[in-house]
Amino acid sequence: MSIRKALSALAVVSMVSVSLAGLTPVVAQSQPPPPPAPQAPQPPLQPQSPQQQTRSTFGDVFGRFRVSFPSGATPIGATYNFTIPASKTQVGITAMIQDQMFQTTMQNFPNMMQQMGAKIESNNRRDVRGRQGQFVATTMQDPQSEMVLRSLNVFVPGPNVWVQVTGPAQNMPQLDATLQMLLKTIQF
């Protein structure tokens, strides 16, 4: 299995943990509805039926799709994924609106990783720009390629942000440097 496939497999692990927390991992941005076309004067407002209510429209940041949700749909989280080819590193940043969902994800993450065969190397508190975060470092071996992957995870309650840096274990200095840079520059 190539490094890209192995990194993708670990990204799936993070997506699974987001799914288990009840999130739908979609990178989306809110798009305002298009301006209404000029119309003739409207009769007085009447109560709308459910089919006539306005819908929320969201568009993929890459422009791949737009979707309309029923009235009342509310975003609950978003996941952003990046790759840094020079260090063979993948970065995932997940933001969750609901405190309980974030707490559940943070608390269940180490056990879920162990169930998937990962070794928990660290699970302790870490200061993130004046906030107490939870740092979880894991190592997982891909059974097919025998590649060992490291995943550095920092969960920051309050803003409910999870930062994950993943890559081959032999790139540990680059993984750690990437995480440190992200934690120094992240703003809440």
State the end-to-end CA separation: 38 Å
The strand line-up of the biggest sheet is: 4-5-9-8-7-6
Q: Which parts are unreliable, with pLDDT below 50 for 5 consecutive residues or more?
A: 1-38, 42-50
Mean of residue pLDDT values: 80
Tell me what the CATH architecture is: 3-Layer(aba) Sandwich
| Beta-strand fraction estimate | 35-45%
What's the number of domains? 1
String of helices and strands: HEEEEEHEEEEH
Architecture blueprint of SSEs:
Blueprint: H1 3-20, E1 28-31, E2 56-60, E3 66-69, E4 77-84, E5 89-96, H2 99-115, E6 119-128, E7 131-141, E8 148-156, E9 161-168, H3 172-185
Antiparallel strand pairs: 1-2, 2-3, 4-5, 5-9, 6-7, 7-8, 8-9
Write a structural description.
By secondary structure, the chain is an alpha+beta fold. The chain has a single domain (3-28, 74-185), classed as 3-Layer(aba) Sandwich (Protein Transport Mog1p, Chain A), CATH 3.40.1000. Helices cover 26% and strands 36% of the residues. The chain contains three helices and nine strands. The chain has a six-stranded antiparallel beta sheet, with helices on both faces. It has a three-stranded antiparallel beta sheet with strand order 1-2-3, with no helix packed on it. A hairpin with a 4-residue loop joins strand 4 and strand 5. It is globular and about 50 Å long. The protein starts with a helix and ends with a helix.
